[in-house]
Amino acid sequence: MGTPRTSLSKKVSGSQSGQAAVEAALTMPLMLFMLLGTMQLFMMMHARVLTQLAAFQVTRTGSLNHGNCQRMLHSGILQLLPAIEPFAKNNGIPVDQNVGAAFGRYAFNNYNNKNINVGTGSSQSLNSTVLWIVRDLGGRRAYGGPADNNFDQSLGAMTLETQVIFWFPMKVPFANWVIARIMLAHYGIQAYSAQNPLMINMRATNWSSASNTLMAEVRNELAVRLTNNDYVFPIIATSTMRMMTPMKRANYAPPGLKNCPGTPSTL
Question: Which of 71, 97, 159, 168 has its CB 3.0 to 4.6 Å from that of 138, i.e. a possible disulfide?
Answer without folding.
Answer: 159
